[in-house]
Amino acid sequence: MLAGEPYDGNDAALVAQRQRTRDLCQRLNSLSAGPDTATERAQLLHQLFGRPVNAQVTPPFFCDYGQHIELGDNAYFNFNCVVLDVCRVRIGRNALFGPGVHIYTATHPLSVAQRRTGLESGAPVSIGDDVWVGGGAIICPGVTIGSGSVIGAGSVVVRDVPPGVFAAGNPCRVLRDIADDAAP
Among the listed ranges 17-21, 58-62, 177-181, which one has the minimum average pLDDT value? Predict the structure, then answer.
């Protein structure tokens, strides 16, 4: 699965892993905000991602496995973000995700006959440092977004986006270079 090879999504071990992750997400999403829950939130994020994280995840948040997501320091997920992490998702330092951003690594065959077999596959997603993804954007399997780029709200990112650009639309396309706008 992590290698992008076809896999059976109904495999008992994968189903059990996804259920564990759903339970952790449900616990995370049910915590009230405030300093009295900070330690519990940090522990849940550690369990969810499989390592301590220095990132902020605003509930509700949903993912398939969690442990396939690598969060850079100071990454921020706003409300209602979804990460389907059947393959690796690498998120750089200081990356910002607006509300309702979806990141997909999972994909299905185009052929009806192949879909009926139940086999799925995926492709990793990589998001560089200091990227800002506007609310409601969808990042599709196999996409890389270069450091310092901005993705406009509602965009559907189906191709790689180079570093230091503003890209938007459906399908998402580069609209202008913003490398000179970057802070030191």
Answer: 177-181
CA separation, residue 46 to residues 14, 71, 115 (Å): 20, 11, 35
Say how many C-beta atoms besides its own lie within 10 A of residue 50's C-beta.
Answer: 13
- Catalytic residues, which ones? 108
Q: Note the pLDDT of residue 184.
A: 47
In 3D space, the residue among 97, 106, 50 whose CA is nearest the CA of residue 77 turns out to be 97
Q: Please measure the distance between the N-terminal and C-terminal CA atoms of the chain and give it in whole angstroms.
A: 39
Q: How far apart are CA 2 and CA 182, in angstroms?
A: 34
By the 8 A CB rule, do 175 and 158 touch? no
The residue ranking higher by pLDDT, 181 or 94, is 94
Which comes out higher in pLDDT, residue 37 or 20?
20
pTM over the 0.85 mark: yes
Q: How many CB atoms lie within 10 A of CB 176?
A: 11
* Euclidean distance between CA atoms 133 and 168, whole angstroms: 10
What amino acid is encoded at 77 in this protein?
F
> Contact 128/149 with Cβ under 8 angstroms?
yes
